[in-house]
Amino acid sequence: MIQIRQPATNLRRSALALATLGLIGSFNPHLGAQTTPTFNHNVIVLDPAHGGADTGARISDRLPEKDVTLAFAQRLRPLLAAAGFTVISTRDADLTETAPNLTTEQRAGIANHARALACILIHATPSGYGVHLYTSSLPADESAEPATTLPWDSAQSTYLTLSLRLANELGVTLLHADIPPTLSHASTRPIDNLTCPAVALELAPLEVPDAKPTPLSDNNYQQRTAQAITEALISWRSHEAPPSPTATPATKPATPKPTSPTAKPPAPKPAPAPAPAAPGAPR
Ligand SMILES: [Zn+2]
């Protein structure tokens, strides 16, 4: 579950929905090109949030969020693989104390090392409808060059324009599949640390006109959603077409770009300690 501080942009049933989504994606293409880094074209990172003692939200009496996020990632994986993607998941099981889950910082490290075409953080909530799409609430920083190292706590700033485009791509495709998307911003961990186009995707029940809402545990609903996301990522790969990496990828940003106006003092934190949950952090 993701807690936000500002109202989401609810696009369902809006005649202007597609136009609105188009506006969200209409960033200056020149600026976007300047900040387009190198990605592994066929790599998608999935981060099924929560796990182990961190159960996340309670979706129903017997269903914790951690189980929904893992099940959805496992549903998405074969669809992406069939489309030619290599899927890197930050967890493939509900781990225990003897094999603990990775910290959010470790998850970010895995994602950043992959130089993925897209990083999808998966959450779930019993409230709201459709699929809630979140991008980082950091300000976009068009000035930084992706080849340089970036401050860990705000690394996503440089990629935010791409992340917004990715959210737009996902939103349009979900809308076409009659799954209402909602767009908003939340710095749910570890999205601010990611050096890839990154969207946190929160699954919610499906509203059905004049009928009971479809629970998000519904197999058919989950499958439709997974298929729509796969279609969106195929489209993202086809038109985003960033170059493949030619150099050894950086494993983790450590120091700011000296000339960046938003650069912070050097923060050599190879494994930053978890900070207290921010208001926009997931539960
Ligand atoms: Zn969550």
Q: Overall 3D geometry?
A: globular
CATH fold title: Aminopeptidase
Spans of at least 5 consecutive residues whose pLDDT stays below 50 are: 10-36, 243-282
Q: State the helix count.
A: 6
Bound molecules: zinc ion
Order of helices and strands: EHHEEEHEHEEHEEH
Care to describe what's here?
The chain is of the alpha/beta class. The protein has one domain (16-240): Aminopeptidase (3-Layer(aba) Sandwich). The chain contains 6 helices and 9 strands, in the order βααβββαβαββαββα. A 7-stranded mixed beta sheet has the order 1-8-7-9-6-2-5, with helices on both faces. It has a two-stranded antiparallel sheet with strand order 3-4. The longest helix has 22 residues, at 219-240. It is globular and about 50 Å long. Zinc ion is lined by residues 1-2, 49-50, 56-57, 65, 123, 282-283.
Can you summarize this structure?
With 283 residues, this protein is α/β, with parallel strands linked by helices. The protein has helices spanning 17-24, 29-34, 65-82, 104-114, 160-176, 219-240; strands at 9-10, 40-48, 58-60, 63-64, 86-89, 116-124, 131-135, 181-185, 198-203.
